[in-house]
Each structure stands twice: as structure tokens, then as C-alpha cells.
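Subject: for your reference before the review

Hello V.,

The reviewers asked for a structural picture of the protein, and I figured it would be easier to keep everything in one thread rather than splitting it across files. Below is the amino acid sequence we used in the manuscript, unchanged from the supplementary table.
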Amino acid sequence: MDDRALSKEISYALRHAPWEYELEMDEEGAVPVVQLLDALHRSTKWKNVSEEDFARIIAQSDKKRFELKDGKIRAYYGHSIPMKIKKERQMPPDILYHGTARRFLTSIKEKGLLPQNRQYVHLSQDVETAANVGSRHDAKPCILVIDAKVAWSDGVGFYLGNEKVWLADAVPPKYIREGK
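And here is what came back from the structure prediction:
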């Protein structure tokens, strides 16, 4: 079985198009495992997928995109669906990072970081992860430094995505500076 392809299929189902799979998502974005399995089994490509396959993909992933708990599975972050996934506000580290294409800097300096077609702005806990994300859009991405603790104390909402990813509703420009 192609674990990477299965992971992408699960991501698409949970993050972007649950209605295409007839999934009933709760307010935290979780769906019953049996429901996702039923949906995947409709395709000959995924007819042998099991809950154990989900568990293996989650255990082997360094990105920690999914959670399997109490008979349900959910994506931690990256949702583009209209339903707002409920997250619990948490105090962020002092500094977070965001890797971006240089062509977006003017807009970011004017408007700050906005979720665009996602539900939240994605921020990284370390420079390496931010650089990796930014390099998807620019060979020499700009690393932005976010004064997260100050923003938090001023009322900006932050949420833990996983051990490397933090989420924010939006980050105003006054909390953003270019890294070195």
C-alpha cells in the first residue's frame, strides 16, 4: 500500500472535501473511523484500508497531521472547508516563524498574515520548518519572525496545531518582522 498516497487521500477528505466522502464531521473536525473507512472502501484503490493503516501512517509521520482517538480521526490543521473547526486558544511561545514567498511581503507588511483560503494562519515553531514551508512558493523564501507572546497578550488568538505548527486567526503587521 502506498502510505503517502493514502495520507494525501485522508488529508483531502478531512481537510478539504468531507462532503465528497459523505463524512459527518463534529465541531472539532473529527469523523468516525468506520465512516471514513466505508467511504474509502468504495474505491478499489482503497478497498483493503484498515484502521491499522491509519495508525501506522500517523505513527510514521513526522508532520503529525492527524489524530486517531476514541474511534474517530481528524486532521489537526490545514482545513479549507467552510465549517470553522473549533480550536482551544493556547498561549504560544514568545516567537514563532512564517516562511513565505518574497512576492507576498508588500501585502503582508500592509495587511499582516491572513488565513487566505485556510481557516487559520500557519506558523512554525522553528526556522527550519518555516523555511521548508516557504520554499514551496519561492526558492529563496523570506522568514518572518512573529512576536507571538506580545500578540497573544494583545488579544490575538493562537492555537496549537502540533509540536511544530501553531495556528492563528490572523497576525497584524505590527507583530511581524523580517528575519535575517
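For the response letter, the relevant points are probably these. The radius of gyration is 17 Å. DSSP finds six helices and nine strands in the chain.

Happy to draft the paragraph if you're swamped.

O.
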